[in-house]
Design a protein that fits this description.
mainly alpha, about 150 residues
């Protein structure tokens, strides 16, 4: 669309934008900001990110507030109970995919298993936010422990 129909970017600019966004750390959605920047500078990057993030963020906020206000309704409780195993399964599958490369390297295997065990234990035994555990895992990785 940006290249063929609008002619706002050339094919090499588009390809370079995607490559740059993929190389950057963080979510893959960053390519939207890079394309917006290459099209219209900082205002273009801001407009592109606002356009891609605002609808889904608004929907999640509205749905979450509605669900919290109606959490005693049978349908909301049933939905929540039904989604719990699915959420757990997706988290386990993601964790497995992320841990697999480290488990295959002998010098990282035991540290990775220890980190997984500690995370599971903390999750089951405490009310510690998962954000802190992700941060601890990132620090452990940055220090070369895993």
């Amino acid at each position: 669309f940006l290249v063929d129909q609008r002619h706002w970017l050339t094919d090499p600019q588009f390809t370079s934008s995607i490559a740059l966004a993929q190389a950057a750390p963080g979510p893959n959605i960053l390519f939207v900001a890079v394309l917006g920047y290459n099209t219209a500078g900082l205002p273009g990057a801001a407009a592109a990110m606002l356009g891609i993030m605002l609808p889904s963020t608004t929907l999640v906020m509205v749905a979450t507030r509605w669900a919290r206000a109606n959490r005693e309704r049978l349908a909301v409780r049933a939905f929540t109970l039904g989604m719990a195993p699915l959420t757990l399964g997706l988290m386990l599958a993601t964790g497995w995919l992320l841990a697999q490369p480290y488990l295959l390297v002998p010098e990282h295997r035991w540290a990775t298993l220890a980190l997984i065990a500690a995370t599971v234990a903390l999750t089951l035994r405490t009310r510690l936010s998962l954000v802190w555990m992700v941060l601890a895992g990132g620090v452990a990785g940055a220090l070369g422990w895993v």
